[in-house]
Amino acid sequence: GGDQLLRLARARPGDIILDMTQEAHELLQKALALPENERAELAGNLIASLDATVDQDVDAAWQQEVVRRLHEVQSGNYFLGRGPAKGTYTAA
Questions:
Q1: What's the rounded mean pLDDT across residues 54-70?
Q2: Mean of pLDDT over the chain
Q3: Residue 62 contacts by C-beta under 8 Å, 6 or more apart in sequence?
Q4: What is the pTM for the complete model shown?
Q5: DSSP of 23-56, one letter per residue?
Q6: pLDDT digits (tens, 9 = 90+) for 17-52
Q7: d(Cα 11, Cα 17) in Å, to the nearest integer?
Q8: What string of DSSP letters covers 50-92?
Q9: Are the beta carbons of 77 and 70 closer than 8 angstroms?
Q10: Could you tell me the CA-to-CA distances from 85 to 71, 73, 80 in Å, in that order?
Q11: What is the dihedral angle through the alpha carbons of 59, 64, 66, 68, rounded to the nearest 10 degrees?
């Protein structure tokens, strides 16, 4: 759970993590010997595998936002790199 993840996040190379199998500990040692860029890629993939569930509501909201922004750019109401066109948005 979250407590175990926090404990793992705080672990430093060489720390003994008792919840790990021997196989996992050996794999960790091999991973720690990798170059930094490969460790980062591996870590990112491992973290992504823990959060594989997708919140459909959030996903749908992002899809709508992408479409809204695309329409702004296509209609000339938003200029890439400069933000909204003058007078397009008013203060709330």
A1: 86
A2: 77
A3: none
A4: 0.40
A5: HHHHHHHHHHTS-HHHHHHHHHHHHHHHT----H
A6: 567 788 988 998 999 999 999 999 999 888 888 776
A7: 8
A8: HT----HHHHHHHHHHHHHHHHHHHHTSEETTTEEPTTSS---
A9: no
A10: 13, 10, 10
A11: -170
C-beta separation of 83 from 72 below 8 A: no
Q: Residue 92: its pLDDT value, please?
A: 47
Q: Looking at this protein, which amino acid is placed at residue 14?
A: G
What tokens does 83 get? 């933000």
The residue with tokens 């720690």 is 32
Structure tokens at 55: 């919140």
Structure tokens at 76: 């000339």
Do 88 and 78 form a contact (C-beta atoms < 8 A)?
Answer: yes
Weakest-pLDDT range from 29-38, 71-80, 82-91: 82-91
Distant-in-sequence, close-in-space partners of 34: CB < 8 Å, separation ≥ 6: 42
